[in-house]
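new request in #modeling-help
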Amino acid sequence: MKKLYPYSPLIVFFILILFFARQLILKEDPSELPSVLLEERFPEIILKKLDGYKLFSVTNLMNANSPSLVNIWSSWCVPCKIEHEFLMRMSSDHNILIYGINYKDKKEDALKVLDLNDNPFYAIGVDLDGLQSINLGVYGVPETFIIDSDGNIRYRHVGPILEYDMQNIILPILGKIMREKI
Amino acid sequence: MIIELGHFFLALALSISIFQFLLPALGVKFNSYGMMRSASIAAFISFILVFLSFLSLVYAYITSDFSVSLVAKNSHSLKPLIYKISGVWGNHEGSLLLWVLILTFYSAAVAILGRRLPLKLISLVLSCQGLIAAAFISFILFTSNPFIRLFFPNIEGEGFNPILQDFGLAIHPPFLYLGYVGLSVTFSFSIAALLIGKVDTIWVKWVRPWTLIAWVFLTVGIALGSWWAYRELGWGGWWFWDPVENASFMPWLAATALLHSSIVAEKRDTLKAWTILLAIIAFSFSLLGTFIVRSGVLISVHSFASDPSRGLYILLLLIFFTGGGLALFAKKAPYLKSGSLFKPLSREGALVINNIIFASAAATVLLGTLYPIFIDAINNSKVSVGPPYFEAVFIPLMVPAILLCAFSPMLSWKRAVIENIIERIIAVFICALFLASLIIIMNDGSASAFLGLFLGFWLICGTLYEFFIKVGIKSSFKIFIQRALNLPRSAYGMSVAHIGVAIFIIGVTVSSAWRIDIEKPIILGEKTIVKDMEITFKSIKRVAGPNWNADRGEFEIITSNRDKHFLYPERRFYPASQVNTSEPAIMSGIFSDLYIVLGESNDNADSYALRIYYSPFISWIWFGILLMAIGGVLSLSDRKHRLGYDLKRV
């Protein structure tokens, strides 16, 4: 028995390797949404109201006339500020409905940011402790989901949307969803 | 032409490395002196070849040769020279070449400094180093070749991530790699010891300085990375528990444990199997770090080009080296003779607890970092593990380590008597309690701030007290100085490093407990008050840099004693990569940093989004880490750790 103890590090190591191998073989890209959520209904999440801004719920997403974006943001998140410009352009130039989820933020800070910059969001829900966003599999902020008019998740974008992402990923997918409808 | 030569030299280095692996190993098997001797020559040649190969890539970067695919993708002719050079390792292919360069450099250093080591030992060590080098060079040549030409050369390079254009980050990878790869030496020594089946004094005397070297570089490398994140990322934080940061932190924790266990192995001839296991684990963490960073199995805020096929190759390397090392350990460790016994309450006992804590800490960070992978495999769901987990788990683990650290140097070897030190512990306790309470009461701090300060003062008081006891606290001034001068440098090293830890803790505690964040719109000429400073937004100018344009704000800061300072935060735009970045301006001082970030301008008004962070004592964080590294260097300069020193006597 005593001779078996020295084998324990080796055994633990190989268990680790099994997990790595699985991750490496099954998932080409971990930043992609797990297949469980893609093409599925936007999960039932309950958000709180942010004073002075319209609140939204999953029902808003389900019975819409057009696809929309759900953007997870926070006042403390720097990439969100870089992204802000493109969210503004999408909401004003392209008339896209953007729903914002304010993630793990202080109320005053969130209000201040919206006050200071312009507001790209059609409606905003607050996820104070970040627990609701877990259902979305949110890793960090910013993250953006493309939702079709039936409330299904069609795409998940991790990280800020920059010029390239907007022109080559987000807008084309939105266009494709709109064409499907017709 | 030069690039092709570099490519050729690297291929040649691969074959030399294979020789370096095979010949000495066969030499040991057949007891051939010549074959064993050839290891040192092969190690040296292989270093020269890799060095030339590396130089050729540097040359391509300096001359902006955009017919080389790697240069075209990552460089730009307008980049300042230093960032052209650092661009060599600012990407996957080049950084691997740097990795191999450092590996062969260490092998050559071991070959030269280890001339007087037992031939069998040094041959096996170099053979193992040769195997690692061969594996990594073939990784470069077959999956990530930096020397590939473009069929149609580019006229201009595609630039490189502007956020990485920073001096701290330019020198961060070389230091980190010197640390990572330095652990390969202790790994090879452990493998050799297991193969020979004997761990003797010479072995221990050799492993300790190499661990120290790797540890010092790793410490500096991590500090540089965190310093960069602080100055460049623009949100005033300095550690984010990101997978990539953890990838460098885990080997550091293992190396710290190894550093302490090798003291016991050296001084008391015990804990040898454990020390060998730690050496294998420490290098495995280095490989694991490379795997995590390069394979893309985990998402990180640091965007590295990741590629699953490369990930598979690194995984195979990991299986081969770590699996092989651990299997060898499992087979041979029971036959290693265990050394002298000791009581639980003794210096050895305390160092064992230190080791248990550091090993658990490394395991904790490993668990947190890999947890998303585990959950994904078991539950098929995605989770993220962030700073709250690490802070909740890591800090309570470190508290007993710090408590122990202050008085374990006072314990005697083998068996300590608690009555001898209880008075000192009480004195240190009262002293720390008093200082921490004083600061908390004066500045109105929280309970967690109190705990942090108490630990910091506890460690400082304990370390100083121990030092004064060693040199004789009641003796006359002359004897005091004489004894202090006679104290070995390693004793100073330990004290300095431990005080560095204390200063680090104080820096972390104070900077987070008394930090002030201000975020507001500001218009030209507007004044704002932070703490006792008056900050005025004076002007904004458009300036041009070598490969960027910027809006540069001018802020005048008037401190409480009417001193005038200016800060110039910038919002830069890099046309080559179409990226905006914020360059924070920082007024660093011994007691506080003022950190200003200029945000977007509001189109319809002349207002700018402004963020100001006031962090007291934040520079103490890096100062503390630097002290730890200095302690390491001091210890390394001790005569008895000097490499190759006096091997005949032992």
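bot summary: The mean pLDDT of chain A is 81.
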